[in-house]
Structures are given as structure tokens and as C-alpha cells.
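Recall the central idea of this unit: under ordinary conditions, the amino acid sequence of a chain determines the structure it adopts. In this exercise we apply that idea directly, starting from the sequence alone.
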Amino acid sequence: MNLKAAEEGKEYIVKAIETDDEELDAFLFSLGCYSGEPITVIAHRKGGCTVSIKDGRYSIDNQLAEAIIIG
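Accordingly, the structure predicted from this sequence is:
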């Protein structure tokens, strides 16, 4: 399942990041979004969603949300 399909308020574990863009991988890693880390969807929005990673809140678009595989 990807992040776009996640329930709001429920904590998930990042299983994988499915992207061919190395810059995007590095960016997500800098946010603390990598395999094995917990992630929570705070709210779904029209163009994406707001997520909580570690102690930060971030707004990500739908394309990025689809690339983050959770379990």
C-alpha cells in the first residue's frame, strides 16, 4: 500500500521508496523518510497530504505519496 491510500491518524512503517530520482531519495532521507521509519498521515488534501515524520510535519504531493510504500 502507498501513502496516498493510508488512513489519517494511523502510524505506518515505511517499507520502501519507489522512485528513480536520486535527488528525491536524498531529499526524503534528509527528512527522515526511509525504510523502517514510522510515518503518520495527518490529513489528506486535494493535491497531496500532510505527514508527520519524526518530530516534523511536511506537506507532500500525490505523486510523492504514491512513491512511498508503507506497511
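The mean pLDDT is 94.
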